[in-house]
Design a protein that fits this description.
It is built from 7 helices and no strands. By secondary structure, the chain is mainly α. Helix content is about 75%, strand content about 0%. The chain folds into 2 domains: about 140 residues, no CATH class; about 30 residues. The chain starts with 6 loop residues before the first helix and ends with a helix.
Length: about 170
């Protein structure tokens, strides 16, 4: 299984990551400033009835009691979430959080009874998460993670030095 996370496979994961990012960016950009989730939420709640409901009762309850009363916030979160996930995946920055957010959004769309491309996008996000660091070898995370680790290590070292200096001067 190591070969799935190697540098040669990282090229495939990168292409897949960028493709997924483009899908999210294309979905989110047209929604900014003119998105209203109320109709979608009402439609999803309506799918909870009947003999074979597409939406489970517990999720319809969540939509009715949590999402719908906060639709104005949802109207901001969904478009901007889609755009930020898309940008993050395209440039490979904050890749893991972007993939988790993508999978979470797709899961919620699926639970709301919307198939469309959601199963495909969800599956790709999960595959990229499983690919681990190979999914962001070729992206800004490669540099950002190294930079953050160096800063954290420097901060730890500075803290140790300060503590050691205080112990020496106390004696």
């Amino acid at each position: 299984m190591k070969w799935l996370r190697g540098p040669k496979m990282a090229i495939l994961w990168t292409v897949l990551r960028i493709w997924l990012g483009i899908q999210w960016l294309q979905a989110g950009l047209p929604k900014i400033g003119n998105f209203d989730a109320a109709g979608f939420l009402h439609g999803a709640i309506a799918k909870a009835g009947g003999e074979n409901p597409a939406v489970k009762g517990w999720y319809a309850g969540f939509l009715e009691n949590v999402a719908l009363p906060n639709v104005e916030l949802i109207n901001i979160l969904i478009p901007w979430g889609e755009v930020l996930v898309g940008i993050g995946l395209i440039v490979g920055l904050a890749t893991v959080p972007a993939l988790i957010a993508a999978a979470f959004m797709n899961l919620n769309f699926l639970l709301a009874g919307t198939l469309s491309t959601n199963p495909i996008l969800y599956t790709v996000a999960i595959l990229l998460l499983a690919a681990g660091t190979a999914a962001h070898i070729y992206g800004l995370d490669r540099f950002a993670i190294r930079f953050i680790k160096e800063k954290m290590n420097q901060r730890r070292q500075d803290k140790k030095d300060t503590m050691n200096h205080k112990e020496v001067t106390a004696h």
